[in-house]
């Protein structure tokens, strides 16, 4: 059984005219299925869905798992859910969209169909006196018109599936790089490691890359399958990159969070993990017996995909 909240507004979402109903069939345009909701809430203040199309416009759902408490919103101690219009730059400058919408949450405990009334309508549609008075225009020359507009909802069966994993298994790769002082390559790639059915690889620029070129060690984590992700699939990763020191208290660390999609780069990290001057100084303890050790650890992974 679905619990629905609906309203009507123009070009923004308001609290005007809220209604609450229950029904036993799913939303026709879009739904999100979230596994491990608590883990999603732990890492994301706001989650925005993939874009979907309805009524000739593009939309997305914005979910605040712990509530939207930014003024003037008042979502404290609630889950906040919004409908957001997308691609407004393609609309006319004076665009206005009148929309009647509903937002849903599914009751899994009841998980049953409710009896449907055979007649739906308004008990107080219009007062008889008002209707009979020809001055009001409803009954003129003993003639009147009634009409009905019926929207039959046919679920598309499309939903967004979100899978969240904290501290995934096999999520650490320790990479030893021998003969570090003799390297001539501008970029090095580690062996692949597999975690959460995805293959990953560390990329390292011994002499820096981007803003770190010539002054810093640059390190990144690549998702091998990124280029094969579909337009409705994405992977979010929260990971730590480390340069190990012989003194464990002196490891250099950087924590990165990013979305991997088929449109974005397949590798994320930092141009300036640590200064080359500090790295190459022998007594600092990062290069031991001319071997540098770098680690990548996946801390949190979210896989999102629209399926039908």
UniProtKB/TrEMBL annotation:
Q: Which InterPro entries match?
A: MATH/TRAF_dom (IPR002083), TRAF-like (IPR008974)
Entries under SMART domains matching the protein: MATH
Write down a Pfam family by its short name.
Answer: MATH_2
Residue ranges constituting the MATH domain according to the UniProt record = 27-150, 170-298
Q: Which SUPFAM superfamilies match?
A: TRAF domain-like (SSF49599)
Domain of life from the UniProt record? Eukaryota
Instruction: Please report the name of this protein according to its UniProt entry.
Output: MATH domain-containing protein
């Amino acid at each position: 059984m679905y619990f629905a909240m609906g309203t009507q507004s123009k070009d923004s979402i308001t609290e005007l005219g809220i209604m609450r109903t229950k029904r036993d069939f799913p939303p026709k345009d879009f739904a999100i299925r979230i596994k491990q909701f608590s883990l999603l809430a732990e890492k994301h203040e706001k989650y925005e869905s993939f874009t979907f199309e309805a009524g000739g416009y593009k939309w997305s759902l914005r979910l605040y798992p712990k509530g939207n408490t930014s003024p003037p919103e008042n979502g404290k101690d609630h889950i906040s859910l919004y409908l957001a219009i997308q691609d407004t730059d393609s609309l006319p400058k004076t665009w206005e969209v009148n929309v009647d919408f509903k937002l849903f949450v599914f009751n899994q405990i009841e998980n049953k169909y409710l009896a449907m009334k055979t007649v739906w309508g308004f008990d107080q549609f219009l007062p008889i006196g008002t209707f009979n008075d020809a001055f009001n225009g409803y009954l003129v020359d003993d003639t009147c018109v009634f009409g009905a507009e019926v929207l039959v909802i046919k679920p598309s069966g499309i939903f967004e599936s979100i899978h969240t994993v904290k501290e995934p298994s096999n999520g650490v790769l320790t990479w030893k790089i021998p003969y570090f002082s003799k390297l001539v390559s501008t970029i090095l790639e580690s062996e692949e490691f597999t975690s959460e059915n995805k293959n990953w690889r560390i990329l390292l620029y011994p002499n820096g890359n981007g803003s770190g070129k010539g002054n810093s060690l640059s390190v990144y984590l690549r998702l091998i399958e990124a280029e094969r992700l579909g337009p409705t699939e994405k992977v979010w990763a929260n990971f730590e990159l480390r340069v190990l020191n012989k003194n464990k208290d002196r490891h250099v660390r950087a924590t990165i969070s990013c979305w991997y999609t088929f449109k974005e780069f397949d590798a994320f990290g930092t141009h300036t993990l640590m200064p080359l001057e500090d790295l190459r100084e022998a007594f600092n303890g990062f290069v031991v017996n001319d071997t540098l050790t770098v680690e990548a650890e996946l801390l949190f992974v979210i896989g999102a995909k629209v399926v039908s």
